[in-house]
Fold:
Amino acid sequence: MKTRSMAEPRKLRATGASPGIATGPVYLADRPALVSVPVAPGTSGPGTLAEAVETAISALQDLADRVDGDSRDIIDFQIEVLRDPTIAEMTEERVSAGEHTVFAWVAAIDTHVAELEGADEEEVRARAVDILDMKNRVLGILSGTPVEDFPAGSIFVGKDIEPSRFLGHDWSAGGGIVLFGGSAAGHVALLARAKSIPMVIGCGRFDVATDSQVRIDGDAGMVFLDAQAEGLSPVPARVPPHTDAAAIDHGSLQTSDGVSIQLSINVNDPLEIDGIDAATAAGIGLMRSEFAVRSLADAANEDKQFHIYRRALEWAGGKPVTIRMLDIGGDKPLAGLDDDSGAMGMRGIRLLLARPEIARLQARALLRAALFGKLRVLLPMVTFPSEIDNMRQIFAEEAALLLRRKIAHRLPQIGMMVEVPAAALMLDTFENAEFFSFGTNDLAQYLAASARDGSDIRAYRDKAAPAVLRLITQAMTLTAGKPVSICGDMAGNPSFLPALLAAGLRHFSVAPAQRPAIGSALVGLNADGTRAAGD
Amino acid sequence: MSGSRLTMGEVEPLAATCQTEIEVKHGVGLHARPSVTFTRLAKSFPCSIEVAVNGSDIWLNGKSIIKIMGARIRKGSILRIRADGILAEEAIRALKELIERNFDEDKKHGRTT
Structure:
């Protein structure tokens, strides 16, 4: 670091959430977080679906004016379906029965599509396609409200940043994130680590002018305000990606004493896999579908989900792809869904079973995608075996529905996250789970009674690591020989690898950026977790 | 509307129940395009409009494209159309004429019968 210059730079000591150093102009996000989410909170009411329908109608009418013949007939038909009073009535009935407006509307449409698909006449069956296209158009409008972006290369400074905003931003020009609050276990922090975006959290509210230069150090957890005044030389914003010469053949490696280990990657943004060579991983150990499904309209969009899942499976080329069903609620609300949920409340599989319209639609997308590779469906926040039975029932019913509609599908393997302590302790009672995956972030927050979105009590979670490790070690004896992996942050921290190996874990799934470091750490250890001799 | 109170008698000429029966002669039955023409015309009237096909006692919402298309109306089908409410008579007359004109299909596509 340079010696002091005339102006004393202001330094803030905070917590690093994602390593790396970034310098850039400040983008101060002073607007309340809710304003910029893709779907306005009011979407849960009937008003905004109606608005999306009206927008779709006027767009279709514009289009209709410019075409003629058969195209015009199709558009006229689509407009007429959007104005159909029967669909409006069915939607209202479902809403009064407790369904969310968007899903109620989708279900009303799908019912009629199924009827049309069963028709004898080709012309009637063809209309089903037009209706599906129209449905996707409306859902696109619902989710398509542009997120307010910030200039490329700038340092985002604010109270919080939404995953959708993070994902919608172009990080190729560098930049970083400083949050007044936040949590290293929060989902944007996960995303930032995966994409190697420097991020500092928990520095408290501070005054800084928009466009003034700031430098952040995600390793030391420091923020330097007025970086220019101090004459800090700009540093490359992006940490150059690790290049590992170590031959990791399809994520299959060996410990120093020759025991096979699988190393998979965790995927958030579905576009993330584009820049990753599939030959470097044993597959996708965790795809968090809530990052592919960023709004209620996405959750209601079966085709969009299907294409995202199918793409991941095709990328993996026959290697296992584990897709976790929507883990919404808690610190991961779905824009537009206003169900009250805390970290210990209605989230994960609980919310999916309470909102079966969301689960059914995702199940259909997964059933269809399963044809394109080795799909494993992971259920989040499972507490009791009955929850898996109930979800299996949903998969069976939706498979039967697809069969009636003559839509190709396959039943994927269904397994569970081990992240609720009660489930970890009783793992031998989960005969209906085909595989297990440890989620250490949630295990830690529940074991230490300290919410993962609270940065001020992070120390509690960190100190609970031995308790988490003991619980994992114990649970490993209850798995009945079924496939087990670990996908939480603990797997991406080299200091925990000896204990995890000693507990018997042989399959690790980490963020792509951590894979080389974890891979080389693993090959330097023996299977019992001891350091290899001469290393 | 100020002052005088409307009596039922004064409303009756407008709000009525009206019904008709007609055979569909259109070659391709009532598929997408003619269905759209039919429901659009039906929607232009404030009264309720219902349709029953081939003597069925199930009355379908005549303003619903989904229902009308789902009714599998073909050449030779007998449609009963009933309207209830304001402009019911006019609605029945207009819809009947539309069917008699083969849903304006010929006109639309410049074909001659």
Summary: The radius of gyration of chain B is 16 Å. Residues 1-11 of chain B have pLDDT under 50 and may be disordered. The longest helix of chain B spans residues 88-100.
